[in-house]
């Protein structure tokens, strides 16, 4: 059997920022657990349609003989196993950052893994997760001060960095495409983002004279489009960099007289609004503070008003299993992040708010398309990203983040939903009349 060997560009030397990644974990856990990890890994991929290429030309996986199978190149099996044994999936991600493994298409490999997530590790070992893996740092809790720090970690990196891979609308959330072409077109992304925003504004009933509260400004596109409809918009964010550029974009669009953008925690918002829109901000609230977030929505919504939210969700059982787990995404990308299930949201809406969901729209495949376009654009901008001061290790980290996210939606492990919320008693169904 002839094995075709693949590899990415070799990992560049790591800067001092990544000094800890140079050290392969040592101690009892890596020494004992490393061989166990390799055994479990071999067993897992033997049942999966992937080809794992090892040093020396050997290949593992149920797809080892298939030229169509996604390829994972394991450059340093010992280091890979030691990292995974030490910190689980954090170690898996760090192994990619350090160059212990690579893939021509990491999203394709991770999609296979995500689709089999419940079968990768034998069921009897699932109960040991909380004992063997690191717990979430308390510093990441989304208190008023913690939420500001968490937001800055990601969104204050550089407006110029985000501009390199986002479309002209600077929208950093799932788009809504007109059709799910197998090969999404970059030229369609801006229109798909505007379509998503307009659907949410329609859902919330935003029009001329609407008093709109936006929780989570992003870079201002939704506020601009709402103001162009004649709404008066108050938008709040915890990112100083987003606030700065959003204000510039609002002024350039000629709607600064109808839009205010404040650096303010959602819990500190006052007033009453005809409509509220919040796009992929709930994920930053944290499990402990979801009741506070929902109570805030109840408090600020005027009678007869509507709320449109867009939120990333995961299956309820997976959410329960990993709720206290410290993940690679939390360590490196979104400190304090938490993805709820739709079951949890329904329970919390009932127990901690005066709201009910009256409409649901699922966009999971659309997010997979969106992320693929971002990932391709980010990779193509490697030289420009480096010129902004982000080294190769950072770029490997972000390529993995975008691929990991795409794989979640492509496999169905993650979904993203748009929900319309109204005060209980406001809807026709609550009043005992027919709903058209």
CATH fold topology of the largest domain: Rossmann fold
Q: CATH architecture of the largest domain, please?
A: 3-Layer(aba) Sandwich
Give the % helix.
Answer: 40-55%
Indicate the proportion of strand residues: 5-15%
Q: What is the C-alpha radius of gyration, as a whole number of Å?
A: 23 Å
Residue stretches low in confidence (pLDDT < 50, at least 5 long) are 1-10, 431-436
Strand neighbour order, sheet with most strands: 7-6-5-8-9-11-10
Q: Identify the CATH homologous superfamily of the largest domain.
A: Vaccinia Virus protein VP39
Structural class: alpha/beta
Number of helices: 19
Query: Which CATH first-tier class of the largest domain would you pick?
Result: Alpha Beta
Instruction: Please write the string of helix (H) and strand (E) elements.
Output: HHEEEHHEHHHHHHEHEHEEHEHHHEHHHE
Provide the number of structural domains: 2
Largest sheet: 7 strands, mixed
Kindly report how far apart the N and C termini lie.
64 Å
Number of strand segments: 11
General form: globular
Residue-averaged pLDDT? 91
Task: Give the topology.
Elements: H1 19-22, H2 28-45, E1 51-53, E2 59-60, E3 71-74, H3 77-87, H4 89-98, E4 101-102, H5 106-115, H6 123-126, H7 129-132, H8 144-155, H9 159-165, H10 189-203, E5 211-215, H11 221-228, E6 232-237, H12 240-252, E7 259-263, E8 273-279, H13 290-300, E9 301-313, H14 316-322, H15 328-332, H16 342-352, E10 355-362, H17 364-380, H18 382-387, H19 392-411, E11 415-423
Parallel strand pairs: 1-3, 5-6, 5-8, 6-7, 8-9
Antiparallel strand pairs: 1-2, 3-4, 9-11, 10-11
């Amino acid at each position: 059997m002839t094995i075709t060997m693949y590899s990415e560009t070799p990992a560049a030397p790591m800067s001092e920022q990544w000094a800890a990644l140079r050290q392969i974990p040592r101690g009892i856990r890596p020494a004992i657990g490393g061989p166990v990890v390799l055994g479990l890994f071999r067993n897992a991929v033997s049942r999966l349609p992937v080809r794992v290429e090892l040093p020396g030309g050997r290949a593992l996986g149920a797809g080892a003989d298939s030229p169509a199978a996604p390829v994972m190149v394991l450059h340093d099996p010992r280091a890979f196993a030691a990292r995974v044994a030490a910190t689980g999936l954090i170690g898996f991600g760090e192994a990619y950052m350090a160059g212990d493994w690579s893939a021509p298409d990491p999203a394709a490999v991770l999609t296979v893994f995500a689709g089999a997530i419940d079968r990768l590790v034998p069921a009897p070992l699932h109960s040991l997760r909380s004992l063997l893996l690191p717990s979430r740092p308390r510093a990441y809790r989304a208190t008023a001060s913690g939420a500001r720090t968490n937001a800055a970690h990601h969104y204050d990196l550089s407006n110029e960095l985000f501009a390199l891979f986002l479309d002209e609308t600077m929208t950093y959330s799932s788009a809504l495409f007109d059709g799910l072409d197998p090969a999404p077109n970059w030229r369609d992304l801006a229109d798909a983002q505007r379509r998503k925003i307009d659907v949410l504004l329609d859902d919330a009933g935003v029009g001329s004279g609407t008093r709109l509260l936006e929780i989570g400004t992003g870079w201002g596109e939704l506020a601009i489009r709402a103001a162009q409809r004649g709404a008066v918009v108050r938008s709040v964010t915890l990112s100083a960099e987003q606030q700065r550029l959003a204000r510039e974009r609002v002024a350039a669009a000629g709607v600064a007289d109808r839009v205010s953008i404040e650096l303010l925690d959602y819990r500190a918002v006052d007033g009453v609004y005809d409509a509220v829109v919040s796009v992929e901000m709930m994920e930053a609230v944290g499990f402990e503070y979801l009741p506070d977030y929902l109570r805030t929505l109840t408090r600020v919504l005027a009678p007869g008003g509507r709320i449109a939210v867009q939120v990333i969700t995961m299956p309820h059982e997976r959410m329960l299993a990993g709720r206290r787990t410290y993940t690679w995404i939390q360590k490196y990308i979104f400190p304090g992040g938490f993805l709820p299930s739709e079951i949890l949201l329904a329970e919390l809406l009932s127990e901690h708010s005066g709201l009910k969901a009256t409409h649901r729209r699922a966009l999971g495949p659309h997010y997979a398309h969106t992320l693929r376009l971002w990932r391709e654009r980010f990779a193509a901008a490697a030289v420009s990203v480096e010129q902004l001061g982000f080294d190769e290790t950072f770029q490997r980290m972000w390529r993995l983040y975008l691929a990991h996210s795409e794989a979640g939606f492509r496999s169905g492990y993650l979904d993203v939903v748009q929900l319309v919320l109204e005060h209980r008693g406001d809807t026709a169904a609550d009043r005992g009349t027919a709903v058209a």
